[in-house]
Amino acid sequence: MRLLIIFALLSCIVNSLPLLFQDWSFQPLSLFNFVKKDRLIKLSPTIYQLISEDDKLKLRKKNIKFMDITEQIPIEEAYERGLVNKPNAFSWFDSLFFIGSKQVTHLSKQIPVYNYPKTTKYNSEVKELYKNIDTDLMFKKLSKFTSFFSRYYKSESGAQSAEWLYNELEKIIKPVNDKVNITKIHHNGWDQFSIIVSIPGEIEDKVVIGAHQDSANLILPSVMRAPGADDDGSGSITTLESLRLIIDSYNKNLYKPYNTLEFHWYSAEEGGLLGSVDVFSRYSNAGEVVVGMLQQDMTGYTQGSIDANVEPHFGLINDYTSIDLNNFIKLIIKSYNSIPYHESQCGYACSDHASALENGYPSAFLIESEMKYTNKYIHSTLDTIDRLDWDHIKEHVKLTVAFAFELSLAKELH
Ligand code: BES
Ligand code: ZN
Predict the structure, then answer these.
(1) In this structure, is residue 413 part of a structural domain?
(2) Residues 326-364: pLDDT tens digits?
(3) Would you call 270 a catalytic residue per the annotation?
(4) Got the DSSP string for 32-72?
(5) One domain, residues 33 and 167
(6) Which of 91, 129, 220, 364 is most exposed, with minimal Cβ within 10 Å?
(7) Strands 290-296 and 203-212
């Protein structure tokens, strides 16, 4: 009995520390075993951990990145494969100090090597499309997208914003909807679905362009407003506008892909890449081939670069991405864009390209700038549309259309 009281007292003290210090990052991971640790996360290519749903937010606040793979590997299997230890009587103590993860020797999936084009071939056709880029239209669409109270994947407005996006995409593909497919990908455990628009090519190999549709206010995601204009409303609208231009060209018989071209809007990136992990693990289980995936998460903020007196540029992420695909993107930027790229690092599992790579598909991540100059207002009520630079978003659209054209028309990649 006495032990129990000491235990309860200790719990109260530890849990009130963050209140005392006004520092939420101080809060330890779930203290006791009766807080269900039923989420399996991956923190690096070799580190897995079992944590609770609440712990995920605590990790986010500490800026620790992870991939939630609970749906992909059943917990019993994780124990059997030795990815994580079975909890024991002392696990609550371990979690105080964030012990409990263990290093495993991991056989990561081999990423196939493809012969990406070494020169661009469709310069005049692609540049013709650029005349139709409509930044006013993009502004209008992003205004609506950011007007949902939050696009948090577990919120009602997050499901509504997905419906709105789906309807917009349906309108875009309407003239060709007998040939182009649109699919809602429903996920297990929350209502906001991911969306895939697919333009079938002559072969089934896929080129994928992605962005995440969800937003999150990291103070209190379920109750606070999260406009998510830059993160990743900007990437979602960049992708939407690129699709609009390509569909227009397809409708006029000026373009027909050789490889199947897909546009993805993932749900629940902010929950640990949940939507994209689901999509790419389904592809992998079905034996689908993805020759290249390009993620764009945050495409519109340049004030960080301007303040530092640095030229506007793309941030090309060179860690946990495909070297060959990055080289192809460098070629595209040099041939099609009026701004350069700067290479930068984002860490493990920082956006949905990591889910593609994890499932054996070469992927790349292009962001608004080097990491150090990116938008500091994300994950808060201040991630608003007025802070975005539409000339910069336009450069991302130019890049996307060129990437889509050149790679979807590339033959002999194998
Ligand atoms: N857009 C961010 C990634 C990011 C953050 C890019 C800061 C540039 C600067 C993304 O939506 C995000 O928040 N990712 C999480 C990881 C995710 C797996 C939970 C992160 O970076 O912590
Ligand atoms: Zn984010």
Answers:
(1) no
(2) 999 999 999 999 999 999 999 999 999 999 999 999 999
(3) yes
(4) STTS---EEEEEETTEEEEE-HHHHHHHHHTT---EE-TTT
(5) no
(6) 220
(7) parallel
Residue span of the structural domain in which 148 resides? 123-408
342 catalytic, yes or no? no
Burial 92-110 (b: 16+ CB within 10 A, else e): beebeebebbeeeeeeeee
Q: What would the two tokens of residue 268 be? A: 């629940």
Domain shared by 67 and 141, yes or no? no
The pLDDT of residue 392:
98
Tens digits of residue pLDDT in 40-87: 999 999 999 999 999 999 999 999 999 999 999 999 999 999 999 987
Q: DSSP string covering 95-120, please?
A: HHTT---EE----PPPPPP----SS-
Ligand 1 closest atom vs CA 379: 13
Please give the model's pTM, rounded to 2 decimal places. Answer: 0.92
Range list of β-strands (E), 333-390 = 341-344, 363-367
Contacts of 2 (CB under 8 A, 6+ apart): none
Ligand nearest to the CA of 320: 1
Give the total number of structural domains in the chain.
2
| Same structural domain, 63 and 170 | no
Residue 60: what are its φ and ψ, rounded to 5°? -60, -40
Mutate to test the pocket of ligand 1, among 231, 238, 267, 342 (most ligand atoms within 8 A of CB): 231
Ligand 1: nearest atom to the Cα of 349: 18
Show which of 103, 133, 160 is a domain's final residue.
103
Alpha carbon distance 66, 399 (integer Å): 28
One domain for residues 135 and 223: yes
Containing 206, the helix (H) or strand (E) segment is strand 203-212
Whether 241 and 272 share a structural domain? yes
Cα(162) to centroid of ligand 1, in Å?
20
Please tell me whether residues 169 and 209 are part of one structural domain. yes
The 10 Å Cβ neighbour count of residue 265 is: 27
Name residue, tokens 């100059």: 373
